[in-house]
Here is the input.
Amino acid sequence: MVPVAFAADNNYVPMLTTTIYSMLKNASTNRMYDVVVLERNITDENKRYIRQFFARFSNALIRFFDVNRYLAGFNLTTSNAHISIETY
Here is the structure.
């Protein structure tokens, strides 16, 4: 099993989907990939879409991990608009 982690928010779903697709399209079919997305606000609809879209890859598992409770109480900010809080 090859672990792969991404950090993304709902705004980044199109780019996330493209990146995961490119990775899986070019990945070895002889290996399994455990794709974990660290997130806190990806909508259920987008999660469903992503899971359905990647169902064609039998060698990949797509999981979403809500980081909200782990970030609670921290005042995390960034001056870079391209870095989401999930990245922390």
In short: The longest strand covers residues 33-39.
